Amino acid sequence: MLRHVAAGIDGSPESLAAAHWAAREAMRRGAALRLVHAWEWQLRPAPSVPADMSQRSWAEDMLARASESMRAAHSGLQVIDQSVAEAPVAALLSAAEQADLLVLGSRGLGGVAGFLTGSVSQRIIARAPHPVVLVRAGECVADEHFSAVDGISPEEIPETPYRDVVLGLDTDRPCDELIEFAFDAALRRGASLRVIHAFSAPSGFAAVDRLAPVNGPELLAEHEHAVVATLRPWCEKFPEVVVAETVTEGRAARELVSASTGAALVVVGRQVREARLGTHVGSVVHAVLHHAPCPVAVVPHV
Questions:
Q1: Alpha-carbon distance 2 to 9, whole Å?
Q2: pLDDT above 70: residue 82
Q3: Which listed residue, of 1, 38, 48, 150, carries a Cα 20 to 30 Å from 59's Cα?
Q4: What is the domain partition of the chain in residue ranges?
């Protein structure tokens, strides 16, 4: 099967921003881009469907225009379009299963500065077998790079460095798929990888299980050692990637949201659960999806 990055598209500005992000990712991976549009016949068509066009014709025309836009903006990229007469969640989950990763657009910003995730994207993120990236409305190539000298656009100076990739790391449940995705993302961008590990001091009940009480500095050193040990084999596998670790006592969600400001990408993990129903993705992922201002990659793991 042809390796590809998939993007869900519905003609909205946010889905087009996601498609362009997916196109850039496909170019970085040397893969194709598959644009997927899922539509269901409605007794009352959406306002975006012209009165003189059928719903199917509008869907095919919208998808063709989006494909032409991707080819024009990303020279040499192989673009495949796919219109599916199926419910969006089912169609996009099928697309996610076949792709290296699936990219979806957010309707906008929620809270102070985060995603407004709809029910479709939340259900897909919670159930997709492969990584899903959520891209906010208005995201563009300049947002992935540091500011160029004299305000020159990164499109004019392609070597303008990428912003950091941020990884949320839990040393109690380190996941190979998650860590490798983050290192690979940093490598493909020539970016630094910033690893965030937040921990909570043990409660009084948990402390009695220790042979001796551990004070603040000792506890911090213990977690720093665990982070270094967890990352050591990956640093050896990806020697080109510059890694910076931040280990702090606090809430993981808050630290990751803070680190996401000025980042190119935040990578977080979602534990695969036996139950296939529902949209629970975990409190940390939920918070990052709603408040991070940069694209977020959610990587499923056991």
A1: 20
A2: yes
A3: 1
A4: 1-105, 148-302
Tell me: the pLDDT tens digits for 257-278? 999 999 999 999 998 765 555 5
Per the rule left: phi > 0, alpha: psi between -120 and 50, beta: everything else, 64 is alpha
Predicted local confidence at residue 58, as pLDDT:
74
- Specify the residue for token string 């798929």: 177
> Which CATH number, 3.40.190.10, 3.40.50.12370, 3.40.50.700, 3.40.50.2000, labels domain 148-302?
3.40.50.12370
Q: What confidence score (pLDDT) does residue 109 get?
A: 43
Q: Say what the pLDDT of residue 111 is.
A: 37
CATH topology of domain 1-105: Rossmann fold (3.40.50)
- Structure token digits, residue 121: 């994207």
Q: How far apart are CA 264 and CA 165, in angstroms?
A: 6
In what helix (H) or strand (E) does residue 228 lie, and over which residues does it extend?
Answer: helix 216-237
Instruction: Give the sheet arrangement for strand 296-301, strand by strand.
Output: 79-84, 32-38, 4-8, 101-105, 132-135, 296-301, 265-271, 165-168, 193-199, 243-249
pLDDT confidence tier of residue 223, bands split at 50, 70 and 90: very high
Give the three-state DSSP class for 87. coil
pTM of the model: 0.87
- Say yes or no: do domains 1-105 and 148-302 share a fold: yes
